[in-house]
């Protein structure tokens, strides 16, 4: 609980800054390189560049999968990383082989990929979506029929941002590579939460603010052999792959947050998973009327610290506002908003009935949220659902 009495349970949207990240920012502000441009030739510029390159080494190590520091491209956020991955890699693959004019995206991707599809079609690509099974998992069996030697890129996220379902990235990557296609994964939700399967992927997106780093900085890591056409132009920064003066301050904080979560991943994962399992058991107990969105378990196929549920008969917006008044901050697992009655595209793709999907909630947290706060949240939600259903 914060000093204002709120319990923030929307870490999947953006997590509070961690102590290591805050300390890194403070150290930068007190250093002689504060404000120095890392592309300048003078002494402070070179020192800033050295600090920036160390953050690439740290992030490459945290990502794993054999990525090198030179593969790490800084961007303004996960949305930009995903955007330029789809545009840049697809166009790079087509420039190398003119028949590569197809792009396959999973139907459960973040909007930063789903919404790119019309623009990709405008650039001459055929875009197709591979659907998940009822549990929210995209299988190699579902992907295989869509693959041929015209596919430039396949993009499937490492873990879904609404349900937390972990995807079989290694299997999907191998299927794509068997047809000569490149493979990108959006690991924005998974990075720092679970070990990533990146040994064979060509590119991966990760963002700072999901793991306790600052908002406004992310990376797209691409192997040196990956064809890529830049989508922005200017001073030739990031080896010509993404123009613009780099944000050294935020890069240092990102790397500090990443080292903290990755070095303590196993211990924190076990702790957060246990708390999430307990919350699921309380909320989805017999008689509550609350349902999990997926049959995937936290121990076998779902992110720790993300609880995805549905409250049939009560819409998400009502639940969020009532929980907010009770001091608990959560988000909808659907795209419901004022004036909209459309369920989440993720839950729809999973085949979840509309009336259930409209009552979806996503509760997300890390080890900083205490068990007693989760218990109080569970009681508040159960009371609200009972009251609402009693009025139907």
UniProtKB/TrEMBL annotation:
* Transferase found in the keyword field: yes
Where would I find the Aminotransferase class V domain in this sequence?
7-377
Q: Cite the EC number.
A: 2.8.1.7
Q: What cofactor(s) does the depicted protein rely on?
A: pyridoxal 5'-phosphate
Catalytic activity, as annotated: (sulfur carrier)-H + L-cysteine = (sulfur carrier)-SH + L-alanine
Q: Which InterPro entries has this protein been placed in?
A: Aminotrans_V_dom (IPR000192), Aminotrans_V_PyrdxlP_BS (IPR020578), Cysteine_dSase (IPR016454), PyrdxlP-dep_Trfase (IPR015424), PyrdxlP-dep_Trfase_major (IPR015421), PyrdxlP-dep_Trfase_small (IPR015422)
Keyword line: Iron, Iron-sulfur, Metal-binding, Pyridoxal phosphate, Transferase
Family as reported in the entry's similarity comment: Belongs to the class-V pyridoxal-phosphate-dependent aminotransferase family. NifS/IscS subfamily.
Q: What is this protein called?
A: cysteine desulfurase
According to its UniProt entry, this protein's organism is: Parafannyhessea umbonata
